[in-house]
Amino acid sequence: MTVRPATPEDLDTVIELLNGLAEYEHASEPFVPDRGAFAAALFGRQPQAEVLLAEADTANGAGESVGLALFFAKFNVWNNAISTGGFAGAVAPGATDKTNVISVNSAEWARTPAKGVMVVTFDNASGAGEAQLLPVDVKK
Predict the structure, then answer these.
(1) How far apart are CA 101 and CA 108, in angstroms?
(2) 36-78: pLDDT as tens digits
(3) Helix 35-43 and helix 11-24, axial crossing angle in degrees, nearest 10
């Protein structure tokens, strides 16, 4: 196996492998990036993430890409423009919890607006109904 840094010529392969990951993780939607913005995020003057490709070795040298490692300081291929990680204690039905504040990174929102805020409760079972995605409309 050969591991090498991805290059701009590998963009289609990176997207294909990320869609394989999305399918494996049962993501509700495939990964369909803005190709220019995604390429700039990976290969531009100030990359936000790096990718290593794993290729199966063949008799002729490196072969088909079989995996990737995407790593970053702060980057999310599924549009993380909204803060994450709030936890509420027990809240009675119909009650409110004002201990969690949601913040929006306006610069990231302008580039990759989030589809919503995911809400997961402790009593959710694993599966399609595991979480709720609440749409968010950011107004200036």
Answers:
(1) 18
(2) 999 998 999 888 888 999 888 777 666 788 888 887 655 455 5
(3) 100
Q: Which tokens in the block code for residue 54?
A: 């794993």
Give the domains, in start order, of the chain with CATH numbers: 2-72 (3.40.630.30), 79-140 (no CATH)
Residues 6+ apart with CB under 8 A from 6: 13, 14, 42, 43, 50, 51, 52, 53, 68
Round to whole Å and give the CA distance between 43 and 48. 9
Phi and psi angles of residue 8, each rounded to the nearest 5 degrees, phi first: -55, -30
Report the run of H or E that residue 53 belongs to, with start and end: strand 49-58
> Is the pTM for the entire model greater than 0.85?
no
